[in-house]
Prior knowledge:
Layout: H1 13-26, H2 39-46, H3 50-62, E1 66-69, E2 73-76, H4 81-105, H5 110-122
Helix pairs in contact: 1-3, 2-3
Amino acid sequence: MKIIINTSLMVPIYEQIVDQIKMLIRNGELKENDNLPSVRTLSKELKISALTVKKAYDNLESEGFTITVHGKGTYVAATNTELLLEEQKKELEADLEQAIQKGRRCGISDEDIKSLFELILEG
Length: 123
């Protein structure tokens, strides 16, 4: 499993870890019951705090992507395709919202933004 941390991003490191692990699950590179590296191992590999990795793993577990078995490790949970699809929709919605806000900051009217989206969709 290859995780790359970009310290120049304004995105917290634990969120970068969460996003990359979710992407690996979505792409099928991590499958159900695959073991994730231990918190200690991943923190050493990435040269970051073990608490940051723990926070990422806790976040993944709370969202249903992983299961942690005390003393055994963290494993990929059964893939819920509806959950993955919903997650992708939320990410796309956030990206589109950012694009709309940027357009408005640049003085582009809502009608012009809508026309741009329609043009993109027609593709």
